[in-house]
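Re-run with default settings, no changes from the original entry. Doing this only to confirm the output is reproducible before filing.
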Amino acid sequence: MRKFLVVLDDTRECLNAMRFAAMRARNTGGGVEIISIIPPDEFNHWIGVGEVMRAEARERIEAHFNVFAKWMRDRQKVDPTLVIREGAAVDQILAHIRESPEIGVLVLGAGSGKAGPGPLVTALTKQAGTLPVPITIVPGELSKEQLEQIT
């Protein structure tokens, strides 16, 4: 089964990427894998404090995942999986894609503000020609209705 890999982060545009991935998976018989990356600089503290912060980051990610997963199961009939990795986001996303042959498409949400589409979109599109899967970039300003029409 082909899976849509979507990044779970704290950006607003992440929501549209999640919706798009779930709707496409439902309409194409695919699956959804959600990846969240814990940056390495979050744990530059004493060992004990770093471990507590790592556990809290994982709990926060799992709580966010559970919200999206419930919506995907209830509304889209898609049962997503969660992958949590630690390190530099772009490196970890690329490594996961290369390690997971079932990933068929990377779905990213693009910001619409003056800051541009976001650091992940910018970095990964620069490498688009060498990626083993296509990238779908979902504009953060699309409405639910527009997403339904294009999926």
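Strands lie at 3-7, 31-38, 81-86, 103-110, 135-139. The chain has five helices and five strands.
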